[in-house]
Write a structure and sequence with these properties.
Blueprint (H helix, E strand, L loop, with lengths): L1 E5 L1 E4 L6 E2 L1 H14 L5 H8 L4 H8 L7 H24 L6 E2 L3 H8 L6 E4 L4 H10 L8 E2 L12 H10 L6 E5 L2 H9 L3 E5 L5 H7 L3 E3 L5 E5 L4 E5 L1
Helix pairs in contact: 1-4, 3-4, 4-6, 8-9
């Protein structure tokens, strides 16, 4: 059992708090109809935790494609993720769901004065829709793809999240599941708790987190008015 303290908690969204794997895979399948050359299995191995605009730049569009075109396509792609999730829900399956431990953690986050943020590679449109789908309250500090010039694995998302919380990054704990996000949190100077919800243990270990657990259910948080105490099973 490990105990850590922090003045703010910074969460990735997808793969950490919620799981939209099925919806994302559905969106890529739809995208492949327009771009049949895409190697979807290869893309899915590395795309998680990376901004859609960066994935499209790397896998879909030729070098030199203007940023405004890439951004427009990224917006369309993330709308398709939401559409895919809605279709799944209509068919009686789950496109976006809570991951284990999320609801319990939310109780701690809603304590008076508790400082926390979501720092996601998703666009604000998609991230808002995804959280609304599972009725997760939108955080006061919400860092999305549009807010940074360089997304994960660069440190900017978590540096911005810490700054908006008014806390030094070294006094924050980052929760992540993707290697790119783990590297982002470490580069920002924060401790990182990593989950095994989307990648192999080997891939997660290579990214260098401070703690590895299966999912958020192994982390219990309390807020005392000044700091969090985390007990990690």
């Amino acid at each position: 059992m490990t105990t850590l303290t922090a003045k703010a908690l910074l969460f990735d969204m997808d793969g950490t708090l919620v799981d939209s794997t099925a919806a994302v895979e559905g969106a890529w399948a739809t995208y492949k109809e327009q771009y049949p050359h895409l190697d979807i299995p290869t893309i899915l191995k590395t795309a998680h935790g990376v901004r859609s605009i960066d994935n499209l730049r790397q896998y879909v569009f030729p070098a030199g494609t203007p940023e405004h075109i890439l951004q427009a396509e990224a917006d369309k792609f993330e709308v398709e993720i939401v559409n895919s999730a809605n279709r799944a829900k209509e068919q009686g399956t789950h496109g976006i769901i809570y991951l284990p431990g999320t609801k319990d953690m939310l109780n701690a986050l809603q304590s008076p004065g508790a400082k926390w943020a979501i720092c996601t590679s998703a666009t604000r449109t998609y991230a808002t829709a995804a959280l609304n789908t599972v009725e997760f309250p939108l955080p006061a500090v919400f860092v999305t793809a549009e807010d940074v010039s360089k997304g994960k694995p660069w440190p900017e998302p978590y540096l911005l999240g810490a700054a908006k919380c008014g806390v030094d990054p070294s006094e924050c704990i980052v929760f992540e599941d993707a290697p790119s996000g783990i590297r982002s949190g470490k580069a920002a100077g924060s401790k990182v708790i990593a989950f095994l919800t989307s990648h192999t243990r080997e891939a997660v270990e290579l990214a260098g987190p401070d703690v590895i657990v299966e999912n958020l259910s192994q982390v219990k948080a309390t807020w005392d008015g000044e700091k969090y105490t985390l007990v990690i099973a």
